[in-house]
Here is the input.
Amino acid sequence: MMQWRAWALMGLLLGVSLPAAAGTATVYYYTPYKGWSSVYLHHNAGGGWTSVPGTAMSSACTGWVVHVLTTGSGSTFQAVFNDGQNHWDNYNNQSGANYVVPTQGTHQVKNGQLLANAGTPCTADPQPPTEVYYYTRTRGWSTVNIHYAPTGGTWTTAPGVAMNEPACTDWVKKTINLGAATGMKAAFNNNSGSWDNNGGADYSLGTGRITVKDGVVTANAPTPCVVLPPDTTPPTTPTGVTASATQTRIDLAWSASTDDRGVTGYEISRTGGTQGPRTFTSTGTGYSDTGLTPQTTYSYTVKAVDAAGNKSAASASASATTGSAPPPPPAGQPLGGDIREDSIYFVLTARFYDGDAANNRGGSMHVKSGNAANNDPMFRGDFKGLIQKLDYIKALGFSAIWITPVVLNRSDYDYHGYHAWDFHKVDPRLESPGATYQDLINAAHSKGIKIIQDVVYNHSSRWGAKGLWSAKVYGVRDSQWSWYYDAPVSGFEYDGLTIEPSTGKSYYNGDLWSTAEPAGNTCRSWGVPTGSYSQEGYRIYNCQWPNPTSGMFPSQYFHQCWIGNWEGEDSRSCWIHEDLADFNTESTPVQSFLIGVYNKYIDMGVDGFRIDTAVHIPRVTWNRRFLPAAHQYAEQKFGAKGKDFFMFGEVGSFVNDKWNRGSPNHSAQFFTWKERRTYSADDTVAALEQYNYEQSMGTANQPTSTNAFLQGNSYHAPDHSQFSGMSVIDMRMHMNFGEASNAFWNGKDSDDSYNDATYNVVYVDSHDYGPNKSSTRYMGGTEAWAENMSLMWTFRGIPTLYYGSEIEFQAGQKIDCGPTCALATTGRAYYGDNLEGSVTASDFGVVASASGKVAETLSKPLAKHLQRLNQLRRRIPALQKGQYSTDGISGGMAFKRRFTDTARGVDSFVLVTISGGATFSGIPNGTYKDAITGDVRTVTNGALTASVAGKGNMRVYVLDLPGNPAPGKVGSDGPFLKP
Here is the structure.
């Protein structure tokens, strides 16, 4: 913004005439133009300028604010408007300068124009037409139709009406008269069969001016077609820069700069230390510089930047000297104990809670994805945020957290953790001083919460794996490819966090690019044009992109093929995707590498591994190499606690039948068993021998187990002698959780084919799919969710919940669409807004205190339901580890469970019925107490009838046994569990 003195001088230069009398002016301002929630009027009507930001304007009517002011003796005065946060509107289309307003009358300022003496806009006129603007550049559409239905009305005839009104470059427009309707549903298309329907959910649009850009709807939007004059005025120079050191971190702060159109960020320049000059950016008035050299002086200057790229002069320098490096946190050790006693909360760490904004990074797709428009970098949540919200997770009742992979990732969109680059290094975009991965493990353990680390044995990132083998990708850095390939910078090492000074990127890739053919190249036809072109029209060369069939990736380390048949042998030995370079897991160097890197995390004290893409590695390789290596190392390191180290695999069987399309090798239960015969000593040969043998045996000849089932009413010692060491995600229940009853009966039908189904990890939906391989987060409704949870927390298996499901977060939204849409529109949206405030848990499932938004979250119906379910499960051993039976039981979802551990004096027997009544026959006589209502029944004839109504409601009758009294009523009545 211009300096105030400059404005005053401009007023004098205008040469306004001065009438004799003062007056009163009423000024209305149209808020959709800028989309501000608050508007201030800054003016010189009284002679001198008001203090910044001016006077707050009052609400007038929809889309308008108003202020009445006493004017001075002139015939006009100057005015500008702002939102109180340094965003300004001082451009008058009529005069080309500040708004020049008559000192008397009622005036309107709308869309950059002063409408003098226009009167009040707040009349009882009919609702104005709705203006819809649609952004075309991303999709490349030359023609756009809008297909819509007013609220309470019918849809237009497909494909809708043409958006052909005059707009501006990259935008089309349509004005729609909705009459009395308060909004509409809409979808867009190119009149040639391509649609944008908000991922199948359609757009919900209101009234007024609306913009739709890359899936993001902006209500009361400023017109995207106002052409402002070129911005050549730089912001003011930042002042008050301070620097303070804490160990090896320096915190900077400064006073905000001003600009005629708004400051968009700041550029921080650092000198000192051994790394040479560095440049960083910040959108706020502070920055934390971390990982510095101890006992070293660093100096900083700050420049302000506006949207046009204008930069202020550098501020005065501020310096600070770092102290000693903090001592590393002590290594942890696992909590130990049977994992079935726990329930698991699954988080995408980068999307959960932001404890440290300094490690946020948007990456190369920040703008294209639409994340920039939402100020929502893909790497946002971090370990510091997770540590801060451990009590939230404990207050829900969870005692284990499954977190996404922690190793340093590298791809164009890698926040999820499955594109590993440096397996030895924790991704610094997740860590902060005092909140390292080790700090997280230790903090969780101090609260009695286990950490289950997501790990990937099957693949690395598209660039390979640092320390094993990494690719050099060919790209001519001419005018076409310099946008993607960075010039090599000697000495700079990618870590995902640090900004490379010459490019300003944290996602610098110059170390992966080679103009000349690199030494040791094995890629055929290196650098020869393919005849193909990228979507931008750029020539593509051989070996430009990761490709397993080109010879680029050495066969010693990576497989050499693409998957052709997802239920064929090649699914275990070929690439899934170009971003997932498939390890040759049958190779000794690869096995040694992976075993070594994951032993490091076992050393840190994690409690278990969730194994990504387990089905894409042969079972014989798991059984020979990776599973025994991890289990033996954990037990050797931690003794009895290490013996409880839990490993469960993702075996993607996305079908509803017991065996995945009749193939044992591609079914989840297959991976819970040891091998049944001896194969060749060569792992590659053995993998094929095993595959062919098991396929020839078919599903009818696979081993079976009674480990999950009662014998009558008695628990029996399970036989784990043929257990592989890998439990699995229960894919069949997952696929059938559209309804709890389907999941129940399908789960029962498969349980004899697992080594021990009581160790199955059970969930409704995840970061990949919903039930029936749905691409959206579960949207069955609150009652259906409650019923699903009641089943998961009482039936066999380990209940697991994907973050946010406790409030039906993002229900119905597309789970993932990569960088083609903003994360805020997906099931992987940032959850932290729901966790603001404070919470303390006094026990699992018990809130001691809570305030702010997190208190609201914990009061939601499903959150309250989870708290009680977790309390129930923790009090009743049979619900954790019991075998089950449905014999002698009439009812829908009804079963009996028992767990007996004579050595520990534990004997727990329970009858459960969900969402409806049931009669249990042939049960032991004795006293039964319902943990839901406290009802007491004495059984003398071996039968008990339980009555219950309400979806998700239950009766949980526990038998009083010697030394094991029934707990009686557990917890308080809630929205679903009640009399």
Observations:
- The chain is about 15% helix and 25% strand.
- The longest strand covers residues 906-921.
- Residues 1-21 have pLDDT under 50 and may be disordered.
